[in-house]
């Protein structure tokens, strides 16, 4: 099984929006590059596309929560896009789903994030 987490980032500077598409599992063993990228992110609005994330562990959840708190602290927003049933069940099981805003697609998440705040 391939445990790499692929990260594809697109920035829409005029809207202050960054979209990050993740592919693969979000695990303690592969999350550091994503954490580093989030720490250096300067756009106030963030969309994280989870459509190709196969599963997430507690460390991955922690990274998502930290990303949300960081955006809120700086007056921004974060929307999670296209999370599959397996990822949603983990988020619901840990009750962090209540913290986030979700969109069924990346394009809808981008609209939500751009209009937030």
Short synopsis of the structure:
With 117 residues, the chain is α/β, with parallel strands linked by helices. The chain is 36% helix and 26% strand. The protein contains 4 helices and 5 strands; from the N terminus they run ββαβαβαβα.
Structure, explained:
- The protein has a single domain (6-114), classed as STAS domain (Transcription Regulator spoIIAA), CATH 3.30.750.24.
- The mean pLDDT is 94.
- The N and C termini lie far apart (40 Å).
- Helix 3 links the parallel strand 4 and strand 5 (101-103).
- It is built from 4 helices and 5 strands.
- The radius of gyration is 13 Å and the shape is globular.
- Strands 1-2-3-4-5 form a 5-stranded mixed β-sheet.
- The chain is of the alpha/beta class and 117 residues long.
Per CATH, the class reads: Alpha Beta
What is the terminal separation in angstroms?
40 Å
Number of helices: 4
Domains, number: 1
How helical, in percent, are the residues?
25-40%
Major sheet: order of its strands? 1-2-3-4-5
The whole-number mean of residue pLDDT values reads 94
Number of strands: 5
Name of the CATH homologous superfamily: STAS domain
Element pattern in H and E:
EEHEHEHEH
Radius of gyration: 13 Å
| Beta-strand share of residues | 25-35%
The structure class reads alpha/beta
Main beta sheet: 5 strands, mixed
CATH A-level architecture: 2-Layer Sandwich
What is the global morphology? Answer: globular
